């Protein structure tokens, strides 16, 4: 049996450079599609978040435009309603052990830029996963959670030089928030020493696999990323 831990942001807003609190959370597709793919594969999936707080889903991700169509938005909302029993009681992030799982998976949305980007419990969970060669899937804005993954002995970022992707600066610009942000995912990953790449066109599906590190650029990459993990672990 393959055991998966999906680590979700507990944030309901993202603090912009001017102090404005931009409503956000977890991007629905980035949780729902991997969750569906993992459970359909027969895998056991646990959820965890900072302090065990139930996640907030970004309202835009549940709108017609964010989901891609009115039908898709309604489907996502129905699936979230069906999963309320699971979503309401995630594990506390500070109480989970990477060694208990075969796969760690981080969905995005701007939420991780608010909390997981500065969460040492999450950072050390990722360090443990990297050191043990545990499969690590990170999607869209969730590479923000990679930022605090530093070796406590050396202070070095444990993912320096690794090939990865994440939400691109051009995509943030198109979305209208790049100029309002304190920092951007692509920029920060490059600054830390990641070997970052992205799709030729904004919002096109794009994944990068580097050993047991699996990253997806944007919401459109959700299915491809989860399916690749399942294929490689099966």
From TrEMBL:
<dbReference type="GO" id="GO:0016740">
    <property type="term" value="F:transferase activity"/>
</dbReference>
<keyword id="KW-0315">Glutamine amidotransferase</keyword>
<protein>
    <submittedName>
        <fullName>Type 1 glutamine amidotransferase domain-containing protein</fullName>
    </submittedName>
</protein>
<dbReference type="GO" id="GO:0019243">
    <property type="term" value="P:methylglyoxal catabolic process to D-lactate via S-lactoyl-glutathione"/>
</dbReference>
<dbReference type="InterPro" id="IPR002818">
    <property type="entry name" value="DJ-1/PfpI"/>
</dbReference>
<comment type="similarity">
    <text>Belongs to the peptidase C56 family. HSP31-like subfamily.</text>
</comment>
<keyword id="KW-0346">Stress response</keyword>
<keyword id="KW-0456">Lyase</keyword>
<dbReference type="InterPro" id="IPR029062">
    <property type="entry name" value="Class_I_gatase-like"/>
</dbReference>
<dbReference type="InterPro" id="IPR050325">
    <property type="entry name" value="Prot/Nucl_acid_deglycase"/>
</dbReference>
<keyword id="KW-0808">Transferase</keyword>
<feature type="domain" description="DJ-1/PfpI">
    <location>
        <begin position="29"/>
        <end position="231"/>
    </location>
</feature>
<dbReference type="GO" id="GO:0019172">
    <property type="term" value="F:glyoxalase III activity"/>
</dbReference>
<dbReference type="Pfam" id="PF01965">
    <property type="entry name" value="DJ-1_PfpI"/>
</dbReference>
<dbReference type="GO" id="GO:0005737">
    <property type="term" value="C:cytoplasm"/>
</dbReference>
């Amino acid at each position: 049996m393959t055991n998966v831990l999906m680590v979700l942001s507990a944030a309901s807003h993202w603090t912009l450079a001017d102090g404005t609190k931009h409503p956000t959370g977890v991007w629905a597709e980035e949780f729902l599609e991997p969750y569906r793919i993992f459970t359909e594969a027969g895998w056991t999936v646990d959820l965890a978040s900072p302090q065990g707080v139930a996640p907030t889903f970004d309202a835009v991700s549940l709108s017609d435009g964010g989901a891609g169509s009115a039908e898709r938005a309604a489907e996502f909302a129905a699936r979230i309603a069906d999963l309320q029993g699971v979503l309401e009681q995630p594990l506390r992030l500070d109480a989970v052990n990477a060694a208990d799982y075969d796969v760690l998976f981080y969905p995005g949305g701007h939420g991780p830029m608010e909390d997981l980007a500065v969460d040492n419990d999450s950072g050390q969970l990722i360090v443990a996963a990297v050191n043990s060669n545990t499969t690590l899937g990170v999607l869209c804005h969730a590479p923000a959670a990679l930022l605090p993954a530093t070796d406590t002995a050396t202070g070095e970022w444990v993912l320096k030089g690794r090939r990865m992707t994440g939400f691109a600066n051009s995509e943030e610009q198109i979305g209208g928030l790049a100029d309002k942000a304190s920092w951007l995912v692509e920029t920060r990953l490059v600054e830390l020493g990641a070997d970052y790449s992205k799709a030729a066109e904004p919002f096109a599906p794009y994944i990068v696999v580097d050993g047991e590190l699996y990253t997806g650029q944007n919401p459109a990459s959700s299915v491809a990323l989860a399916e690749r993990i399942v294929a490689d672990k099966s």
